Amino acid sequence: MNQLVRTELLKQRTTRVPLAGICAAPIAAALITFAILTLSGKDGNDPLGPDSLVQIIGAPAGVITVIAVLLGVLGMAGEYRHHTITTTFLATPRRRDVVIAKIIAHALIGAVMGLLALTVSAAIAVPWLLSSGIDVPLNGDLVLVAAGLIVLTALYGALGVSIGAIVRNQTTAAAVVLVWLLAIEGFIGDLFHDTSFVEWLPAAAGRALVHIGPNADGLGAPAAAGVFAIYVAGFAFAGIRLTLDRDIS
Amino acid sequence: MAAIELHGLTKRFGAVTAVDDLTLELGAGTVTGLLGPNGAGKTTTLRMLLGLVTPTTGTATFDGTRYVDLTDPARQVGAVLEAASFHPGRRAIDHLRILASAAGLPARRVDDALSQVAMTEHARRRVGGFSLGMRQRLGLAAALLGEPSVLVLDEPANGLDPEGVHWLRAFLRSQADAGRTVVVSSHLLAEVAQTVDHVVILDKGRLITSAPLDDLTTRAGSVVIVRTPDADRFRAELTRRGIDANLTAPDEVTSSDTTPEAVGRVIGAIGLVVYEMRLIQSNLEDVFFSLTNTAPPATNASPTTKQGVPS
Q1: Which pTM value belongs to this model?
Q2: Domain boundaries defined on chain B
Q3: Distance (Å, rounded) from C-alpha B301 to C-alpha B290?
Q4: Cβ under 8 Å to B: A residues 80-139
């Protein structure tokens, strides 16, 4: 399995889009961090305070998780689009192992993206806050958000592979993911806003992983991670099952 | 044991039967041409053999083992199924490095395989800029990575220019000379005829014949055509000597189931004036069109001809 994961990582290193996607994570984190820091206390935004670092570190999650899930979709469905799935399954006829290796590889890529985003956000925000005379305590909330960001981007990468294995058509798979994340789940949330049901939806559970703290709502971080992981496992199981049964013609 | 065995292999896509109860064995060290018109089931057969398509019924094995159960498939079987199996943004060398990594092959094999298909100078180019011929070569390099004993090639001559076809012919011959078992599907019958030892003909998913190439062409026979101003007398003389002969034009006699030597002896014996003498040997195309009950394309109907005059 290690060899297959290395192979999948090599695939990602030898095309431009995954590299661009990975580079986009720290760039997005930097832009979002700058935006929060410079706009705080203006136009009705909360002023900077001791809890700002927690919010700043979690803020890029919305963007980089989308990048991570799309890279996962491309990593799986892209093989069907370019017909490289044929050579992939000729080299490794054990299809289940191939999909699992892709899931692990994209989880690693997602984790790296989360780590890069976290590092950049902290590198910008901590000196800024300190120079503004704001204390930056290394407390449990901060650690949970930082860990949550890395876990969340990893899980989104794995989710993208799983959805790509189910849908196969790269454009359709990407559209399904984006429409769900950006529209459908919000619509469901509006319909059932007064029930706790919405907290158990995938994107809501993901947000709960990086929005802990005094203003957090929804599931706690461990429960949110568990719920999201169950979604990923369900989609992964379906993706593997379909991949095993599918004719490559 | 046969290198490749198909037993009762059947594939149905809904109401369509793509391959119908196909049973055959291909010996080790042979070059087999898998022939058939479009829709004959060639590609589906090869994909079932390689574990990419699941048979509805039946089995397809290499030395008794299904492809998906081979312990080290890249070292046992190399395959090229389509010229488009590449990410256009990836460099040729990276494509091979990925396959070598997946198959657990040493990295040096990448350079060796590129060299074998004369692609070393293009190794660092992105595949998106490759011609179809270069993609075919890269596909062959991928198939050769594990130095397999069996090569399975689906329409490898598709889209190649004459130079590419010439190269491919020499390549296949070199693989056969190296002792590899090669299965090549193609609709370019003339190219196949120059390369293969054994022919399998499919039509509508069914096996029409599986036989050595020489047997097939010999079975189809040959004719000797003689153009002479004294055609009537010559035909009568051939018939009198027990040689089947027909007047196919006012100055042309066609004799079948005979040899140029036998006809030449008759010509010499009666002192016949001869303008032209031709041997028309039935070729793979004739056999193919005969067995599949299809007609040759109008622009591709010329037979293999050897010309000569009697001494």
Answers
A1: 0.80
A2: 4-214, 221-308
A3: 13
A4: 82-84, 86-94
